[in-house]
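#struct-pred
JK: can someone run the complex with adenosine-5'-diphosphate? inputs below
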Amino acid sequence: MNLYFLLPLISALACLVFGVLILARDRDATPHRCAAALLLGGSWWGIGEALWTLAPDPVTALAVLRISAPGWIAVGPVCMHLFLAAEQRSTHPMRRVVPFAYAGAALFLLAEWTEPFLASGPWITEGMARVPWGYAYLTGPAYWLWYTFTVLTSSAGIFAALQDLRGGASPAETHQTPWLGTGVGIPLMIGSTTDGLLPLLGIPLPRLGVASFAVFGALVTWSMHRFGFSLLAPKTFAGQILEAMPEGVALATPEGRIRAANPSLAALLDLPVAALLDRPLQSFLPGITLTAENALRELEFDLETAQRRVPVAISAAPLRDKQGALLGLVLVVRDLREVVNLRSRLLTSARLAAVGELAAGIAHEINNPLAYIGANLRALREHWLALADAWRGDVAKLDFAELFDEGTAMLDDSLEGVERTAGIVRDVRAFSHGGADASERFDPHEVLDRALRVAAPQLRRSAQIEREYGEVPLIEGARRELEQVFLNLIVNAAQAIDGTGVVRVRTSVVDDTVEIAVADSGRGIAPEHLERIFDPFFTTKPVGEGTGLGLSISHEIVRRHGGRIDVASKLGQGTEFRVRLPIAG
Ligand code: ADP
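RT: done, structure tokens with the ligand placed:
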């Protein structure tokens, strides 16, 4: 038995395995389908070649060769198609040639298959000659035409792909090029020489065509595994990126119907990807207008599903072709659960830091009543002991009226001190308590008064407080968060005063908003600092006194309430912060 048949047989099996692997990776990507077609065709051809090598006579060998023809006759057009489909600019003019190339291959197949029915014809192969490794085919009149056609079509495809790579390939693609170039180029060159050129020249040598296909399959499969097949199927690569992205991404028609969505978006919406397709974006983004003109950037929104509510940031942008025609909308949805959680923790820490900044003053404030409560209790103890002695018999020495009057006064004093201390503790506790607030309607003056009470120890040392409260309607929001804003502004005002000065708190209605202004006669803000004071951690105060979080958090709180903060300052004369909040509807 001629053992040469093992070479095409083993190569055919390898081609089959690689073809299936490539197809399994992504059946929808044209380059994958073309590469698989080449390899599965190669497998058909290889099995044919193994069989005709073992054929008993040249006529049977030729018949088997013709049966294997679909595996090798269209190699040129499929190669061309493969490289043009892998090409990134899908508009390469050579694409129009591909259908004609396939039609050409069909004509060649027809020419090859007419042999059993016609006495003579333009066949590609005409007969078989015995050689030590099986048979060599004798070329027919159409052979050189087919060979030129195959070389031209496949080189045209390779040329187009190389051209494309020169114009802006990514580093991964550039890296992959030599591998694919060598992997595709050298085996194909060897195969086309031993199976195409040498038979044409009448030089018989063992054929390596199918084996070269197997090498091609191995290199493409390896490159696909190593690089994610970015070079041959960039669209597949993009698809993989979208699949792997933690952000939800959807592509919608210009009218806002979802055409494609990634698994992250489906997970955010608690739905399978298939259930999202063709659904209008509006169905889960109520109240948001999505049009090509209305690009969104990080719009915060609560995504509601049947089971839960997820805070997200939504960005949307139109997708246009090179001429600027609208293709659709791209929507990116970012899960903000972690951010919201951190934000609320930061808010609580900033609130605690604000109380921390006031701690010295608060301690002093509590210490005062405690001192006289203690003194009173000690004096009362003396009275009590004197009364006890008197009761035991020495009544004449005592002035009862004086003892009782003094005692009552001391008790009143102490009770007032206890009240004051309890009040301070209550205010601080109410303020520093963690957690988020529900939205409610309230009088801004109430909130300002509480903030002024909490800041009182700080203020009393240096500032005189002036309240200029106007007639203002209710506002709506998280009460303690706004209290935190005013406390920050008031404490900053107090800290800005060297020596003594005034802190003026004013309320009024401006347009459709309530304006709350906190002004001080302090040292003012240097112009170069003015634009940085709202940045997180920007502080000009010594460690322990300032964290630099107050204004940035205040800004964020006011923004979330639909309001704004403005500042005006003159160095050496003072500063005024103006907060505007919408009137409760
Ligand atoms: P902190 O008070 O912890 O430094 P803030 O964010 O509240 O943090 O303030 C940032 C900076 O803005 C302060 O360090 C200070 O330089 C400046 N600033 C804020 N309010 C005033 C004010 N009323 N007068 C002068 N400077 C101020």
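RT: quick notes.
The chain is about 55% helix and 15% strand.
Residues 488, 492-493, 496, 520, 522, 524-525, 529, 533, 538-541, 546-552, 575 surround adenosine-5'-diphosphate (CB under 6 Å).
JK: thanks, will look after standup
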